[in-house]
Amino acid sequence: MSTETPEQAKARLADARADAKFVHELHHKALLGNVPVITNLGTEAIKTAILINGGTAAALLTFVGKERLIQQPNIVWALQCFAVGLMFGAAAAMLAYVTQFFYGTAHASMKYFTEHPYVRSTRGSRICEGFAIFTHMCCAGCVFAAYGYAVYAFYNAGLTLSALTLPPKP
Questions:
Q1: Which residue ranges make up each domain of the chain?
Q2: How confident is the prediction along the chain (170 residues), in pLDDT tens digits per residue?
């Protein structure tokens, strides 16, 4: 039998609710505090991949048009690689948006309680989090592929362009 008075029970319940509210706010602030940092880093990586592939393709087309080198197979292959890298960069931008949607949905579908554990995952939040992790990894793969295609395209373009700058053999 409990010897707790009704006033003590109300005070204990108020303390538990205050603790739960504190943990709920802490959980929400922790998630929101990390999102801008992660989003900015990812956005910069995607923008850089798109800029490298698109900008270099435009510069190479400008140079090729001037020198009439479009018949060189390495130049054509380099332009194709830059185009594929640009498509991977665009796919990464789309996947980043989808990833943020899934992470936000997972966070919004968590349940808050007044007893420990104060924040609990639901079936929906676990499913959304799984999709978010999957699209996050696909996004990172697209960014790495865009950089890889850029490096390979630089190599192919360099083969042809370096042959133009070498003096002829005597």
A1: 6-164
A2: 567 788 887 887 777 777 777 776 776 676 666 666 667 788 899 999 999 999 999 988 887 776 666 667 788 889 999 999 999 999 999 999 999 889 888 888 888 776 667 778 899 999 999 999 999 999 999 999 999 999 999 998 888 877 766 666 66
